[in-house]
Write a structure and sequence with these properties.
CATH topology of the largest domain: Rossmann fold
Structural class: alpha/beta
CATH architecture of the largest domain: 3-Layer(aba) Sandwich
Number of strands: 9
Oligomer: single chain
Largest sheet: 6 strands, mixed
Helix content: 25-40%
Order of helices and strands: EEEHEHEHHHEHEHEEH
Shape: globular
Distance between the termini: 40 Å
Radius of gyration: 18 Å
CATH class of the largest domain: Alpha Beta
């Protein structure tokens, strides 16, 4: 799988939101895409995912420029004003809504079981805004990849919530190790802290993505038993 954007730009009502940008990501890869905090991050995420038609350039997934396919396979996580949850809602309500979108059981019991499986049961009754930063980003990402068709995950400005950027970068690497392509939009300062060569909004000549080793498959129980004999 490869998502490739070639010289995409987005014009706002009064100024350019995203200058011509080229960026690509494949499965088992992470890309940091940096830019000045603001509307450019959301424009990039929506353009890359087929939710906004760029004014110039093209976005292709495996060579196909089809917005419907992009919307199904490229997920945008926590984009301000777009996919971020209502911070006043309880965590269990947000989880239930996201599980329903993923076509999974979303009743109270199923939600509490999901939270328990993801080491977050203690947060079930909290307002979403009261989640620790790292937990917020992780839960939203894990809920996103619960959708069956997702191949690319775009984490949108996770550093706007504060916290240690190493946390969400390791989350991105973990998702990539599972086979997803991951793009994280963030500030230049976060990329410098991480000491990672980042792609930049408004540029077309970009560094190579970070390649992540795939998670080793778990051997079937029967095979393990045979080896032990």
């Amino acid at each position: 799988m490869e998502l490739e954007a070639t010289r995409i730009s987005v014009q706002g009502p009064h100024a350019t939101m995203l200058h011509a940008t080229s960026v690509s990501v494949a499965d088992h890869q992470v890309v940091l895409l940096t830019g000045y905090p603001g509307a450019g991050h959301v424009a990039a995420a929506l353009g890359l995912s087929g939710r906004l038609k760029p004014d110039t350039g093209t976005v292709r997934l495996d060579g196909l420029a089809d917005p419907a396919v992009l919307r199904r396979r490229v997920a945008v996580v926590d984009a301000p004003g777009i996919t971020e949850p209502d911070d006043a809602l309880p965590v269990q309500t947000v989880v239930g809504e996201e599980l329903a979108i993923a076509g999974r059981k979303a009743g109270r019991k199923a939600v509490l079981e999901w939270l328990d499986e993801h080491d977050a049961a203690e947060h079930a009754g909290k307002r979403f805004e009261h989640l620790p930063v790292a937990v917020r980003t992780r839960l939203l990402a894990e809920l996103t990849v619960a959708r069956p068709d997702v191949q690319v995950v775009i984490l949108t400005m996770p550093d706007r919530h504060g916290g240690d950027p190493h946390g969400w970068f390791m989350l991105g690497r973990d998702l990539a190790s599972q086979g997803y392509g991951v793009i994280i939009t963030c500030s230049d300062a976060s990329a410098r802290l991480l000491d990672v060569k980042a792609a930049r909004m408004g540029e077309t000549d970009q560094p190579d993505p970070v390649q992540v080793t795939a998670v080793a498959p778990v051997a079937p129980i029967d095979a393990v038993e045979e080896e032990d004999e």
